[in-house]
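User: I would dearly like some help making sense of a protein record. I have put the entry right below:
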Amino acid sequence: MRAVFVEDAEKISIKEIEIPVVKKDEVLIKVAVAGICGSDIHTYKGLHPFRKPPVVIGHEVAGEVVRVGEAVTKFQVGDRVTVEPQIGTGESEGVFTGNVNYSDKRLAPGMGDWLGTMAEYFVSPEAQVIALPDSVSYDQAYL
């Protein structure tokens, strides 16, 4: 699959990489749309505090489920979905207050082993996946 990499500050490329392997509690999504956020711009400029190149950027996404792990129960192939792109670790006030995005201890696409969303396919833990009603377009959902 193709994925957008920030190789270094102000150096971006599209690379061919393997489609991610789905773990038992994960969902593989064929990306329909991926947004560009201010944090992606900071990563591109080499200014992001924790997304460091080389990295697949992006964390706003909507698309269609194309594979589910053996323990996934809420989603099936063909479902239209988006993703809550932040996982709290339970170690900070942001998690305790329900404001994971304020947490200094979190995981998001483009951090660690979790690839960003600017790729043809994206893997997410089932717990982060949100089903889309038919009335919501992909273009609305990734926001």
Summary: The chain has three helices and ten strands.
